[in-house]
């Protein structure tokens, strides 16, 4: 799935699959996370203020989804939201 953050100072393209998230900037890969969960990774919002994702973890019972927030510029995990 493709997501765009088009800001004057931070143009990024986000690509994701079921577990991984990669951000591409003007000079190539800006940052990546190889495992933000065990399945069903979804970007719920993306802006210069941050990237919010949800994912399932195998250790959680049922259909529980965890939410994580990342710094858009660096990809640093801010916190489980």
Structural class: mainly beta
Spatial extent as radius of gyration: 12 Å
Q: What percent of the residues sit in helical stretches (DSSP H or I)?
A: under 10%
Number of helices: 0
Strand-residue proportion: over 45%
Count all strands and give the number: 8
N-end to C-end Cα span: 22 Å
Q: How would a crystallographer describe the biggest sheet? A: 4 strands, antiparallel
- Strands of the widest sheet, in order across it, are 1-2-3-4
Oligomer, anyone? single chain
Please mark out the parts with pLDDT under 50 across 5 or more consecutive residues, or reply none. Answer: none
SSE order: EEEEEEEE
What is the global morphology?
elongated
Average per-residue pLDDT, rounded, comes to 85
Features:
81 residues, mainly beta, 4-stranded antiparallel β-sheet, 8 strands, elongated
